[in-house]
Amino acid sequence: MSVRQAMPVQPADVRAHNFKEVALGYTQEQAVAEAERCIECKKPQCVKGCPVNIDIPAFIKSMKTSDFDDAIDKIKETNSLPAVCGRVCPQETQCEMYCILGKKEEPVAIGRLERFCADYEREKGVKAPQRTTSTGKRVAVVGSGPAGLAAASDLAKAGHEVTMFEALHSAGGVLIYGIPEFRLPKDIVAEEVDYITQLGVELKSGYVIGKIKTIDDMKNEFDAIFLGTGAGLPNFMGIDGENLNGVYSANEFLTRVNLMKAYQFPEYDTPIKRGKRVIVVGGGNVAMDAARCALRLGADEVSIVYRRSDEELPARREEIEHAKEEGIVFRLLTNPVKILGDENLMVTGAECVKMELGEPDDSGRRRPQVIEGSEHVVDADIVIMAIGTSPNPLIFEGATGLEKSKWGTIIVDEAGMTSIDGVCAGGDVVTGAATVISAMGAGKLAAHTINEYLL
Length: 455
Ligand SMILES: Cc1cc2nc3c(=O)[nH]c(=O)nc-3n(C[C@H](O)[C@H](O)[C@H](O)COP(=O)(O)OP(=O)(O)OC[C@H]3O[C@@H](n4cnc5c(N)ncnc54)[C@H](O)[C@@H]3O)c2cc1C
Known about the structure:
The protein has helices spanning 12-15, 28-35, 56-64, 68-76, 82-88, 95-98, 110-124, 146-157, 174-177, 186-198, 215-221, 250-257, 285-296, 317-326, 428-431, 436-454, and strands at 138-142, 161-165, 202-204, 224-227, 233-234, 247-249, 277-281, 301-305, 329-331, 334-341, 347-360, 366-370, 376-379, 382-385, 389-390, 423-425. The relative contact order is 0.13. α13 (285-296) links the parallel β7 and β8. It is an alpha/beta fold. α8 (146-157) runs parallel beside α16, α12 crosses α13 and α13 packs parallel to α14. The protein contains 16 helices and 16 strands. The chain has a five-stranded parallel β-sheet with strand order 3-2-1-4-16, with helices on both faces. Residues 88-90, 142-148, 165-168, 173-174, 178-179, 208-210, 228-230, 232, 254, 285-286, 289, 392, 394-395, 427-429, 433-437, 439 line the site of flavin-adenine dinucleotide.
Protein backbone atom coordinates (compact mmCIF):
# COMPACT_ATOMS: atom_id res chain seq x y z
CA MET A 1 0.00 0.00 0.00
CA SER A 2 1.39 3.43 -0.94
CA VAL A 3 0.81 6.39 1.35
CA ARG A 4 -0.50 9.65 -0.10
CA GLN A 5 1.93 12.54 0.33
CA ALA A 6 0.69 14.96 3.00
CA MET A 7 0.32 18.60 1.96
CA PRO A 8 2.64 20.86 3.97
CA VAL A 9 0.61 23.61 5.67
CA GLN A 10 1.21 26.64 7.88
CA PRO A 11 0.61 25.72 11.55
CA ALA A 12 -2.97 26.59 12.59
CA ASP A 13 -2.01 28.98 15.42
CA VAL A 14 0.23 30.96 13.04
CA ARG A 15 -2.02 31.06 9.98
CA ALA A 16 -5.08 32.14 12.01
CA HIS A 17 -3.39 35.56 12.22
CA ASN A 18 -2.17 36.03 8.66
CA PHE A 19 -3.58 35.98 5.13
CA LYS A 20 -0.71 33.96 3.62
CA GLU A 21 -1.50 30.74 1.83
CA VAL A 22 -2.47 27.90 4.19
CA ALA A 23 -1.37 25.01 1.94
CA LEU A 24 2.27 25.41 0.92
CA GLY A 25 2.45 22.98 -2.01
CA TYR A 26 4.46 19.81 -2.62
CA THR A 27 8.23 19.81 -2.92
CA GLN A 28 9.64 18.32 -6.16
CA GLU A 29 10.46 15.07 -4.31
CA GLN A 30 6.94 14.82 -2.93
CA ALA A 31 5.41 15.55 -6.34
CA VAL A 32 7.39 12.76 -8.03
CA ALA A 33 6.67 10.34 -5.15
CA GLU A 34 2.95 11.10 -5.38
CA ALA A 35 2.95 10.75 -9.18
CA GLU A 36 4.61 7.36 -8.77
CA ARG A 37 1.56 6.16 -6.82
CA CYS A 38 -0.45 6.26 -10.08
CA ILE A 39 -0.78 2.63 -11.23
CA GLU A 40 -1.44 3.61 -14.88
CA CYS A 41 -4.65 1.60 -15.15
CA LYS A 42 -5.62 0.24 -18.56
CA LYS A 43 -8.98 1.99 -18.43
CA PRO A 44 -8.38 5.12 -16.36
CA GLN A 45 -11.57 6.53 -14.83
CA CYS A 46 -10.20 9.80 -13.41
CA VAL A 47 -10.73 11.85 -16.60
CA LYS A 48 -14.46 11.26 -16.54
CA GLY A 49 -14.53 13.12 -13.21
CA CYS A 50 -12.91 16.21 -14.77
CA PRO A 51 -15.38 18.64 -16.39
CA VAL A 52 -12.57 20.11 -18.54
CA ASN A 53 -11.19 16.70 -19.60
CA ILE A 54 -7.56 17.06 -18.57
CA ASP A 55 -5.52 14.08 -19.78
CA ILE A 56 -4.71 13.16 -16.17
CA PRO A 57 -2.89 9.85 -16.82
CA ALA A 58 -0.63 11.52 -19.40
CA PHE A 59 0.41 14.47 -17.25
CA ILE A 60 1.05 12.25 -14.23
CA LYS A 61 3.17 9.92 -16.37
CA SER A 62 5.36 12.87 -17.41
CA MET A 63 5.75 13.83 -13.76
CA LYS A 64 7.13 10.40 -12.92
CA THR A 65 10.22 11.23 -15.00
CA SER A 66 10.31 14.81 -13.61
CA ASP A 67 9.34 16.17 -17.03
CA PHE A 68 7.21 18.93 -15.50
CA ASP A 69 7.35 21.07 -18.68
CA ASP A 70 5.62 18.33 -20.60
CA ALA A 71 3.17 17.76 -17.73
CA ILE A 72 2.04 21.40 -17.65
CA ASP A 73 1.76 21.49 -21.47
CA LYS A 74 -0.58 18.49 -21.27
CA ILE A 75 -2.70 20.13 -18.56
CA LYS A 76 -2.91 23.38 -20.51
CA GLU A 77 -4.20 21.64 -23.63
CA THR A 78 -7.63 21.78 -21.98
CA ASN A 79 -7.26 23.95 -18.86
CA SER A 80 -6.03 27.55 -18.90
CA LEU A 81 -6.40 27.96 -15.11
CA PRO A 82 -4.34 25.09 -13.62
CA ALA A 83 -2.96 26.98 -10.59
CA VAL A 84 -6.52 27.98 -9.67
CA CYS A 85 -8.04 24.52 -10.18
CA GLY A 86 -5.16 22.78 -8.41
CA ARG A 87 -5.99 24.88 -5.35
CA VAL A 88 -9.77 25.17 -5.14
CA CYS A 89 -11.37 22.31 -7.09
CA PRO A 90 -13.26 19.82 -4.92
CA GLN A 91 -11.17 16.94 -6.36
CA GLU A 92 -12.52 14.53 -3.76
CA THR A 93 -15.90 14.58 -5.53
CA GLN A 94 -14.45 14.81 -9.05
CA CYS A 95 -11.32 13.26 -10.61
CA GLU A 96 -10.02 11.74 -7.37
CA MET A 97 -13.38 10.12 -6.65
CA TYR A 98 -12.90 7.95 -9.76
CA CYS A 99 -9.24 7.03 -9.08
CA ILE A 100 -9.05 3.22 -8.89
CA LEU A 101 -6.54 3.41 -6.00
CA GLY A 102 -9.28 5.08 -3.94
CA LYS A 103 -11.13 1.75 -3.69
CA LYS A 104 -8.48 0.31 -1.38
CA GLU A 105 -6.45 3.27 -0.16
CA GLU A 106 -6.28 7.02 -0.66
CA PRO A 107 -6.59 8.15 -4.29
CA VAL A 108 -3.69 9.82 -6.11
CA ALA A 109 -3.61 13.53 -5.10
CA ILE A 110 -4.40 14.71 -8.64
CA GLY A 111 -5.27 18.29 -7.65
CA ARG A 112 -2.06 18.76 -5.70
CA LEU A 113 -0.04 17.44 -8.64
CA GLU A 114 -1.81 19.86 -10.98
CA ARG A 115 -1.01 22.70 -8.58
CA PHE A 116 2.65 21.61 -8.43
CA CYS A 117 2.98 21.71 -12.25
CA ALA A 118 1.33 25.14 -12.49
CA ASP A 119 3.53 26.56 -9.72
CA TYR A 120 6.64 25.00 -11.28
CA GLU A 121 5.86 26.74 -14.57
CA ARG A 122 5.07 30.07 -12.89
CA GLU A 123 8.37 30.07 -11.00
CA LYS A 124 10.23 29.47 -14.29
CA GLY A 125 8.19 32.09 -16.14
CA VAL A 126 5.07 31.14 -18.09
CA LYS A 127 5.58 30.76 -21.86
CA ALA A 128 3.50 33.25 -23.83
CA PRO A 129 0.81 31.38 -25.76
CA GLN A 130 0.77 31.22 -29.55
CA ARG A 131 -1.91 33.29 -31.25
CA THR A 132 -4.03 31.74 -33.98
CA THR A 133 -4.85 33.30 -37.36
CA SER A 134 -8.02 35.37 -37.07
CA THR A 135 -11.31 34.03 -38.39
CA GLY A 136 -12.58 37.62 -38.55
CA LYS A 137 -15.55 36.69 -36.32
CA ARG A 138 -16.25 38.85 -33.28
CA VAL A 139 -17.43 37.25 -30.03
CA ALA A 140 -18.42 39.02 -26.80
CA VAL A 141 -17.93 37.30 -23.45
CA VAL A 142 -19.85 38.85 -20.56
CA GLY A 143 -18.33 38.18 -17.14
CA SER A 144 -14.70 37.26 -16.40
CA GLY A 145 -15.21 34.50 -13.83
CA PRO A 146 -14.10 30.91 -14.54
CA ALA A 147 -16.95 30.39 -17.06
CA GLY A 148 -16.08 33.55 -19.03
CA LEU A 149 -12.33 32.93 -18.84
CA ALA A 150 -12.65 29.33 -20.07
CA ALA A 151 -14.97 30.36 -22.91
CA ALA A 152 -12.77 33.33 -23.89
CA SER A 153 -9.65 31.16 -23.87
CA ASP A 154 -11.11 28.48 -26.18
CA LEU A 155 -12.74 31.06 -28.48
CA ALA A 156 -9.45 32.96 -28.83
CA LYS A 157 -7.57 29.71 -29.49
CA ALA A 158 -10.07 29.04 -32.29
CA GLY A 159 -9.08 32.37 -33.86
CA HIS A 160 -12.08 34.54 -33.03
CA GLU A 161 -11.73 38.15 -31.91
CA VAL A 162 -12.90 38.04 -28.31
CA THR A 163 -13.92 41.01 -26.17
CA MET A 164 -14.59 40.23 -22.49
CA PHE A 165 -16.82 42.65 -20.56
CA GLU A 166 -16.47 42.73 -16.76
CA ALA A 167 -18.55 44.83 -14.36
CA LEU A 168 -15.82 45.04 -11.68
CA HIS A 169 -12.46 46.75 -12.08
CA SER A 170 -10.53 43.45 -11.97
CA ALA A 171 -11.07 40.22 -13.90
CA GLY A 172 -11.55 36.81 -12.27
CA GLY A 173 -15.08 36.85 -10.81
CA VAL A 174 -15.33 34.97 -7.52
CA LEU A 175 -11.67 33.95 -7.88
CA ILE A 176 -10.67 37.58 -7.32
CA TYR A 177 -13.45 38.98 -5.11
CA GLY A 178 -14.71 35.93 -3.20
CA ILE A 179 -12.14 33.22 -2.48
CA PRO A 180 -9.66 34.61 0.08
CA GLU A 181 -5.95 35.18 -0.42
CA PHE A 182 -5.05 32.39 2.05
CA ARG A 183 -6.69 29.81 -0.25
CA LEU A 184 -6.04 31.42 -3.62
CA PRO A 185 -3.43 34.21 -3.86
CA LYS A 186 -4.64 37.05 -6.05
CA ASP A 187 -1.37 37.42 -7.97
CA ILE A 188 -1.83 33.82 -9.15
CA VAL A 189 -5.32 34.61 -10.45
CA ALA A 190 -3.99 37.77 -12.12
CA GLU A 191 -1.24 35.78 -13.87
CA GLU A 192 -3.70 33.19 -15.18
CA VAL A 193 -5.99 35.98 -16.41
CA ASP A 194 -2.95 37.60 -18.11
CA TYR A 195 -2.26 34.34 -19.92
CA ILE A 196 -5.76 34.47 -21.38
CA THR A 197 -5.45 38.10 -22.46
CA GLN A 198 -2.14 37.16 -24.12
CA LEU A 199 -4.16 34.80 -26.31
CA GLY A 200 -5.62 37.99 -27.76
CA VAL A 201 -8.69 38.47 -25.56
CA GLU A 202 -9.50 42.17 -25.07
CA LEU A 203 -10.67 42.91 -21.51
CA LYS A 204 -13.07 45.79 -20.86
CA SER A 205 -13.41 46.16 -17.09
CA GLY A 206 -15.80 48.45 -15.20
CA TYR A 207 -18.31 47.65 -17.96
CA VAL A 208 -21.80 46.60 -16.81
CA ILE A 209 -23.83 44.85 -19.49
CA GLY A 210 -27.51 45.71 -19.03
CA LYS A 211 -26.53 49.30 -18.15
CA ILE A 212 -23.74 50.65 -20.38
CA LYS A 213 -24.69 48.34 -23.24
CA THR A 214 -27.40 45.70 -23.56
CA ILE A 215 -27.47 42.30 -25.23
CA ASP A 216 -29.82 43.76 -27.86
CA ASP A 217 -27.11 46.38 -28.68
CA MET A 218 -24.37 43.76 -28.70
CA LYS A 219 -26.15 41.53 -31.19
CA ASN A 220 -25.49 44.17 -33.85
CA GLU A 221 -21.80 44.43 -32.96
CA PHE A 222 -20.84 40.80 -32.39
CA ASP A 223 -21.34 37.56 -34.31
CA ALA A 224 -21.97 35.60 -31.09
CA ILE A 225 -22.17 36.22 -27.34
CA PHE A 226 -21.37 34.17 -24.22
CA LEU A 227 -22.99 35.08 -20.90
CA GLY A 228 -21.07 34.01 -17.78
CA THR A 229 -22.33 36.56 -15.26
CA GLY A 230 -22.40 34.22 -12.26
CA ALA A 231 -24.71 34.25 -9.26
CA GLY A 232 -23.44 37.15 -7.21
CA LEU A 233 -26.70 38.46 -5.72
CA PRO A 234 -26.78 37.56 -2.01
CA ASN A 235 -29.80 35.94 -0.38
CA PHE A 236 -30.99 37.01 3.07
CA MET A 237 -33.18 35.14 5.56
CA GLY A 238 -35.90 37.78 5.78
CA ILE A 239 -35.71 37.90 9.61
CA ASP A 240 -35.94 41.01 11.81
CA GLY A 241 -32.78 43.03 12.23
CA GLU A 242 -31.10 42.20 8.92
CA ASN A 243 -30.81 45.92 8.13
CA LEU A 244 -28.89 46.72 11.34
CA ASN A 245 -25.40 48.20 11.14
CA GLY A 246 -23.00 45.28 11.31
CA VAL A 247 -24.96 42.80 9.18
CA TYR A 248 -23.11 41.90 5.98
CA SER A 249 -23.81 39.54 3.14
CA ALA A 250 -20.82 37.21 2.78
CA ASN A 251 -20.32 38.59 -0.74
CA GLU A 252 -19.99 42.17 0.48
CA PHE A 253 -17.75 41.16 3.40
CA LEU A 254 -15.47 39.05 1.19
CA THR A 255 -15.36 41.71 -1.54
CA ARG A 256 -14.15 44.25 1.03
CA VAL A 257 -11.55 41.78 2.31
CA ASN A 258 -10.31 40.55 -1.10
CA LEU A 259 -11.01 42.97 -3.93
CA MET A 260 -10.84 46.08 -1.71
CA LYS A 261 -7.80 44.58 0.03
CA ALA A 262 -8.79 44.84 3.72
CA TYR A 263 -6.38 41.91 4.11
CA GLN A 264 -3.52 44.28 3.34
CA PHE A 265 -4.19 46.53 6.35
CA PRO A 266 -2.61 49.05 7.09
CA GLU A 267 -1.33 49.47 3.50
CA TYR A 268 -4.99 49.73 2.41
CA ASP A 269 -7.39 51.38 4.87
CA THR A 270 -10.49 49.60 3.53
CA PRO A 271 -13.82 50.59 5.08
CA ILE A 272 -14.82 47.38 6.90
CA LYS A 273 -16.03 46.68 10.42
CA ARG A 274 -13.60 44.47 12.32
CA GLY A 275 -15.76 42.54 14.77
CA LYS A 276 -14.62 41.10 18.09
CA ARG A 277 -17.45 38.54 18.16
CA VAL A 278 -18.64 37.43 14.75
CA ILE A 279 -21.48 35.13 13.70
CA VAL A 280 -21.47 33.62 10.21
CA VAL A 281 -24.79 32.07 9.19
CA GLY A 282 -24.43 29.13 6.76
CA GLY A 283 -22.28 26.02 6.32
CA GLY A 284 -20.85 26.15 2.78
CA ASN A 285 -17.44 27.14 1.42
CA VAL A 286 -18.55 30.77 1.44
CA ALA A 287 -19.39 30.61 5.16
CA MET A 288 -16.00 29.00 5.95
CA ASP A 289 -14.18 31.68 3.95
CA ALA A 290 -16.06 34.53 5.63
CA ALA A 291 -15.46 33.06 9.11
CA ARG A 292 -11.75 32.50 8.54
CA CYS A 293 -11.35 36.04 7.12
CA ALA A 294 -13.14 37.54 10.15
CA LEU A 295 -10.74 35.62 12.42
CA ARG A 296 -7.71 36.90 10.52
CA LEU A 297 -9.04 40.47 10.75
CA GLY A 298 -8.69 40.18 14.53
CA ALA A 299 -11.92 38.71 15.97
CA ASP A 300 -11.74 37.04 19.40
CA GLU A 301 -14.54 34.59 18.62
CA VAL A 302 -16.04 33.59 15.28
CA SER A 303 -18.92 31.12 15.14
CA ILE A 304 -20.51 29.29 12.29
CA VAL A 305 -24.25 29.05 12.93
CA TYR A 306 -25.72 26.22 10.85
CA ARG A 307 -29.16 24.67 11.12
CA ARG A 308 -28.18 21.10 10.29
CA SER A 309 -25.45 18.87 11.79
CA ASP A 310 -21.74 18.43 11.02
CA GLU A 311 -22.52 15.64 8.56
CA GLU A 312 -24.64 17.90 6.35
CA LEU A 313 -22.20 20.84 6.26
CA PRO A 314 -21.91 21.50 2.51
CA ALA A 315 -18.38 22.98 2.60
CA ARG A 316 -15.38 20.90 1.52
CA ARG A 317 -14.20 18.68 4.40
CA GLU A 318 -10.68 20.08 4.11
CA GLU A 319 -12.00 23.64 4.62
CA ILE A 320 -14.12 22.57 7.61
CA GLU A 321 -11.12 20.85 9.22
CA HIS A 322 -8.90 23.87 8.58
CA ALA A 323 -11.52 26.19 10.10
CA LYS A 324 -11.85 23.97 13.19
CA GLU A 325 -8.07 23.79 13.64
CA GLU A 326 -7.93 27.59 13.52
CA GLY A 327 -10.45 27.88 16.35
CA ILE A 328 -13.71 28.69 14.53
CA VAL A 329 -16.61 27.67 16.82
CA PHE A 330 -19.30 25.49 15.20
CA ARG A 331 -22.79 26.14 16.60
CA LEU A 332 -24.54 23.33 14.78
CA LEU A 333 -28.27 22.52 14.75
CA THR A 334 -28.78 26.21 15.51
CA ASN A 335 -30.66 28.87 13.54
CA PRO A 336 -30.96 32.64 14.03
CA VAL A 337 -34.53 33.95 14.23
CA LYS A 338 -33.77 37.63 14.89
CA ILE A 339 -30.73 39.90 14.73
CA LEU A 340 -30.53 42.08 17.84
CA GLY A 341 -29.33 45.69 17.98
CA ASP A 342 -28.91 48.62 20.38
CA GLU A 343 -30.44 52.14 20.31
CA ASN A 344 -27.81 53.21 17.73
CA LEU A 345 -28.91 50.37 15.45
CA MET A 346 -25.60 48.55 15.92
CA VAL A 347 -25.66 44.75 16.02
CA THR A 348 -25.39 43.25 19.53
CA GLY A 349 -26.12 39.62 18.79
CA ALA A 350 -28.60 37.14 17.40
CA GLU A 351 -31.51 35.37 18.96
CA CYS A 352 -31.15 31.72 17.96
CA VAL A 353 -33.11 28.49 18.36
CA LYS A 354 -31.86 24.92 18.55
CA MET A 355 -32.90 22.53 15.78
CA GLU A 356 -33.34 18.78 15.38
CA LEU A 357 -33.40 16.82 12.12
CA GLY A 358 -36.68 15.34 10.93
CA GLU A 359 -37.63 13.45 7.75
CA PRO A 360 -35.69 14.11 4.48
CA ASP A 361 -36.92 17.08 2.40
CA ASP A 362 -36.97 17.51 -1.44
CA SER A 363 -33.17 17.84 -1.49
CA GLY A 364 -32.89 14.43 0.25
CA ARG A 365 -31.39 16.04 3.36
CA ARG A 366 -33.14 15.68 6.72
CA ARG A 367 -35.38 18.69 7.36
CA PRO A 368 -34.34 20.81 10.37
CA GLN A 369 -37.13 21.49 12.88
CA VAL A 370 -37.18 23.99 15.71
CA ILE A 371 -36.97 22.63 19.26
CA GLU A 372 -39.64 24.52 21.22
CA GLY A 373 -38.36 26.64 24.11
CA SER A 374 -34.73 26.54 22.91
CA GLU A 375 -34.41 30.30 22.29
CA HIS A 376 -31.06 31.74 23.37
CA VAL A 377 -28.90 34.76 22.54
CA VAL A 378 -25.45 34.63 20.96
CA ASP A 379 -23.58 37.92 21.44
CA ALA A 380 -21.98 39.46 18.35
CA ASP A 381 -21.00 42.78 16.84
CA ILE A 382 -21.02 41.44 13.27
CA VAL A 383 -23.38 38.98 11.60
CA ILE A 384 -22.44 37.69 8.14
CA MET A 385 -25.11 36.00 6.03
CA ALA A 386 -23.72 33.18 3.88
CA ILE A 387 -26.92 31.37 2.94
CA GLY A 388 -26.60 31.36 -0.84
CA THR A 389 -26.74 33.64 -3.84
CA SER A 390 -28.80 34.10 -7.02
CA PRO A 391 -28.02 35.52 -10.48
CA ASN A 392 -28.12 39.30 -10.77
CA PRO A 393 -31.19 40.21 -12.90
CA LEU A 394 -29.39 43.16 -14.58
CA ILE A 395 -28.28 41.03 -17.52
CA PHE A 396 -31.93 40.57 -18.59
CA GLU A 397 -32.37 44.34 -19.14
CA GLY A 398 -32.45 44.97 -22.89
CA ALA A 399 -32.17 41.25 -23.65
CA THR A 400 -35.28 40.65 -25.75
CA GLY A 401 -36.31 36.98 -25.73
CA LEU A 402 -33.76 35.77 -23.13
CA GLU A 403 -35.65 33.14 -21.15
CA LYS A 404 -35.09 32.57 -17.46
CA SER A 405 -36.24 30.02 -14.90
CA LYS A 406 -38.29 30.78 -11.80
CA TRP A 407 -34.98 30.98 -9.87
CA GLY A 408 -33.73 33.73 -12.20
CA THR A 409 -31.16 31.48 -13.91
CA ILE A 410 -30.72 31.62 -17.71
CA ILE A 411 -32.24 28.63 -19.51
CA VAL A 412 -29.94 26.88 -22.01
CA ASP A 413 -30.16 23.74 -24.15
CA GLU A 414 -27.69 20.83 -23.80
CA ALA A 415 -25.17 22.69 -25.99
CA GLY A 416 -25.29 25.82 -23.84
CA MET A 417 -27.39 27.89 -26.31
CA THR A 418 -29.96 30.25 -24.77
CA SER A 419 -33.37 31.11 -26.26
CA ILE A 420 -31.60 33.78 -28.39
CA ASP A 421 -29.85 32.41 -31.47
CA GLY A 422 -26.07 32.93 -31.23
CA VAL A 423 -26.17 33.72 -27.50
CA CYS A 424 -24.78 31.01 -25.19
CA ALA A 425 -24.57 30.99 -21.40
CA GLY A 426 -22.89 28.88 -18.72
CA GLY A 427 -21.60 28.74 -15.17
CA ASP A 428 -23.43 29.87 -12.04
CA VAL A 429 -25.83 32.08 -14.03
CA VAL A 430 -27.25 28.85 -15.50
CA THR A 431 -26.85 26.35 -12.65
CA GLY A 432 -27.01 28.64 -9.62
CA ALA A 433 -24.00 28.72 -7.26
CA ALA A 434 -21.80 25.69 -8.09
CA THR A 435 -18.06 25.16 -8.59
CA VAL A 436 -15.15 26.72 -10.47
CA ILE A 437 -14.55 23.65 -12.59
CA SER A 438 -18.22 23.14 -13.51
CA ALA A 439 -18.34 26.81 -14.61
CA MET A 440 -15.20 26.24 -16.69
CA GLY A 441 -16.68 23.09 -18.23
CA ALA A 442 -19.80 25.06 -19.21
CA GLY A 443 -17.65 27.85 -20.68
CA LYS A 444 -15.75 25.35 -22.80
CA LEU A 445 -18.93 23.66 -23.99
CA ALA A 446 -20.38 27.03 -24.98
CA ALA A 447 -17.16 27.96 -26.83
CA HIS A 448 -17.45 24.72 -28.81
CA THR A 449 -21.11 25.49 -29.63
CA ILE A 450 -20.26 29.06 -30.70
CA ASN A 451 -17.48 27.72 -32.93
CA GLU A 452 -19.90 25.42 -34.71
CA TYR A 453 -22.46 28.23 -34.96
CA LEU A 454 -19.93 30.63 -36.51
CA LEU A 455 -18.07 28.30 -38.83
C1 LIG B 1 -16.54 32.79 -1.25
C2 LIG B 1 -16.66 31.71 -2.26
C3 LIG B 1 -15.85 30.59 -2.15
C4 LIG B 1 -15.93 29.57 -3.10
N1 LIG B 1 -15.07 28.51 -3.01
C5 LIG B 1 -15.06 27.58 -3.99
C6 LIG B 1 -14.10 26.52 -3.98
O1 LIG B 1 -13.30 26.38 -3.07
N2 LIG B 1 -14.10 25.64 -5.01
C7 LIG B 1 -14.97 25.76 -6.05
O2 LIG B 1 -14.89 24.96 -7.00
N3 LIG B 1 -15.91 26.73 -6.09
C8 LIG B 1 -15.96 27.66 -5.08
N4 LIG B 1 -16.89 28.66 -5.12
C9 LIG B 1 -17.85 28.71 -6.25
C10 LIG B 1 -17.19 29.23 -7.52
O3 LIG B 1 -16.32 30.29 -7.23
C11 LIG B 1 -18.25 29.64 -8.52
O4 LIG B 1 -19.07 28.51 -8.78
C12 LIG B 1 -17.61 30.11 -9.83
O5 LIG B 1 -16.78 31.24 -9.61
C13 LIG B 1 -18.67 30.45 -10.87
O6 LIG B 1 -18.06 30.99 -12.00
P1 LIG B 1 -18.83 31.96 -13.00
O7 LIG B 1 -17.82 32.32 -14.03
O8 LIG B 1 -20.08 31.31 -13.43
O9 LIG B 1 -19.25 33.22 -12.14
P2 LIG B 1 -18.43 34.28 -11.27
O10 LIG B 1 -17.16 33.73 -10.76
O11 LIG B 1 -19.41 34.80 -10.30
O12 LIG B 1 -18.09 35.42 -12.32
C14 LIG B 1 -19.07 36.20 -12.91
C15 LIG B 1 -18.48 37.53 -13.32
O13 LIG B 1 -19.44 38.25 -14.09
C16 LIG B 1 -19.43 39.61 -13.72
N5 LIG B 1 -20.73 40.19 -14.06
C17 LIG B 1 -21.94 39.93 -13.46
N6 LIG B 1 -22.92 40.64 -14.09
C18 LIG B 1 -22.32 41.36 -15.07
C19 LIG B 1 -22.81 42.28 -16.03
N7 LIG B 1 -24.11 42.60 -16.09
N8 LIG B 1 -21.92 42.85 -16.88
C20 LIG B 1 -20.58 42.53 -16.83
N9 LIG B 1 -20.08 41.66 -15.94
C21 LIG B 1 -20.93 41.08 -15.06
C22 LIG B 1 -19.18 39.57 -12.22
O14 LIG B 1 -18.67 40.80 -11.75
C23 LIG B 1 -18.16 38.43 -12.12
O15 LIG B 1 -16.83 38.90 -12.25
C24 LIG B 1 -16.86 29.68 -4.17
C25 LIG B 1 -17.71 30.78 -4.24
C26 LIG B 1 -17.62 31.79 -3.31
C27 LIG B 1 -18.53 32.99 -3.42
